Protein: beta-galactosidase
Organism: Aegilops tauschii subsp. strangulata
Amino acid sequence: EPFKSHMKSFTTKIVDMMKKERFFASQGGHIILAQIENEYGYYQQAYGAGGKAYAMWAGSMALAQNTGVPWIMCQQYDVPDHVINTCNSFYCDQFKPNLPTQPKIWTENWPGWFQTFGESNPHRPPEDVAFSVARFFGKGGSVQNYYVYHGGTNFDRTAGGPFITTSYDYDAPIDEYGLKRFPKWAHLKELHKSIKLCEHSLLFGNSTLLSLGPQQEADVYTDHSGGCVAFLANIDSEKDKVVTFRNRQYDLPAWSVSILPDCKNVVFNTAKVRSQTLMVDMVPETLQASKPDQWSIFTERIGIWDKNDFVRNEFVDHINTTKDSTDYLWHTTSFDVDRNYPASGNHPILNIGSKGHAVHAFLNNMLIGSAYGNGSESSFSVQMPINLKAGKNEIALLSMTVGLKSAGPYYEWVGAGLTSVNISGMQNGTMDLSSNNWAYKIGLEGEHYRLFKPDQGNNQRWRPQSEPPKHQPLTWYKVNVDVPQGDDPVGLDMQSMGKGLVWLNGNAIGRYWPRTSPTDDRCTPSCDYRGKFSPNKCRAGCGKPTQRWYHVPRSWFHPSGNTLVVFEEQGGDPTKITFSRRVATSVCSFVSENYPSIDLESWDKSISDENPLAAKVQLSCPKGKNISSIKFASFGDPSGTCRSYQQGSCHHPDSLSVVEKACLNINSCTVSLSDEGFGEDPCPGVTKTLAIEADCS
């Protein structure tokens, strides 16, 4: 009840703000839908009857706001009659709203997936995203929304999960840095242009489902004006098929949809990507210190850096203690070892158990090891061999969170932090330290003094250094840096560091952690788009850091006098930190003769299709750059992917000269697969493909 009271107050406040500005469509504004709650249906069952009652209350409370626009609830099946339930998924073509009179709405189509530290990176192929959208509208969909269309950055400590990376690029059509991701962006643009050509029949026509084979079908829309639209689908995840529709034959690749705005001409097929691929690289620049002596450092004290905050003879929950004001919570204790230690044959082991998310362990002021959970399991246990000394020994454990859990039943009770500490292998067995007197300190000394803020640049705690220490734990680094040249987006390369936090001019770039992902068979040189996608399919970066570069908005830089502050937990080499510019360096294209060749901008349903245009390759470098060289060109049956194309058994010997003539030293070019330069057919009876890779500079 207290939560509901605050939730209602907050919802009312937001709605009243919108009403005051006359933002709702009912007031002549632009807001056409409003949403209450999010994906509660995933977790409702865990709360029994109370879960359903809450969902119904939330919907009714929203309706009572009288916005004059529909309210929706995403991934929620128990809703009041006048609230529209919607779908969030990779596929929503089979979804149906609760009532047949309600529109079929897809609120979250996931074009990728989030990254977690220590894991390889998921990628969803553009062919599959387009397939899911075409299927949705073919099956009567009304509204489709991408989550997310523009990737972003979890600046500061805003990443959730836990263990979600600072990057929230999401393999989105527009990437984290604001650059269009080709071919995904362009392929989806062509998809929506094609659906737009079907607009009248989709809005005003009646639909019919026709079977074209065991796993092939046509969704056909006809309207009173004679308009006809068809979505021809092959949902076989392995085999290409030739189908007959209205006395014509159509090639349907496996797991694809062809769109026919006139029930005759194919303007788009989801599996045939006509768009170029734009290859983007992180081009490094030296991290120029303005002066050689501009490095300064501050070393954290290990353990309690001032008076302790409290002492307990037990472990406390990390999150309830820090209230998320910091990632860090110190635990310190001491114990005595017999003066006759070590006895022969003793090999003591420090055993630590934790609910998560990470810990650095120090014994007698020395870092002896670190341990972490992961995105699948936050909790962990670790065993660290240790060397004790006779007399008093001191243990300091720095417990850390790596983002807070943001969903799930009863997730407020999951918590984090240490649960047990003992030392096994002692002369008298195991020494349990869990109920020792533990002194606690919330946060770091550098955080307390806000050393990352520009106004603390002259704080006496900073010690100037001509050469900063390397591989030293719990160290703050400060250096004056220059602005990277040009206007390309900027990333900070933190591959040389361990784990920590970083700021530019007081702006929190976020957590960095170039944690290496495992090497496994989920990463493949090329991705097979066919079949249902899941986040474990089509991964990349196995055996490499999950996140090496960290987005730094150019607006955070000053013309001069920029200060970079790094807090390093474990130890790294700060002299190897570099800025990198995100630069498009090359373009590729792979187009076959049987790809749709209709110009979506100028296509008219009344045109004749007796002499269809040949397919063509279109290449374009970013503004201000030209195609400087052709790295690969083959007209025949080439194979591979961008930067790894290979000639096949069929190859036209003039492929390179034709492409160079059309494309060299200009910003963009078009090469038709019927170009007269290709002359004689190099392999009659074979469907030819033109593959090109070109550099941009």
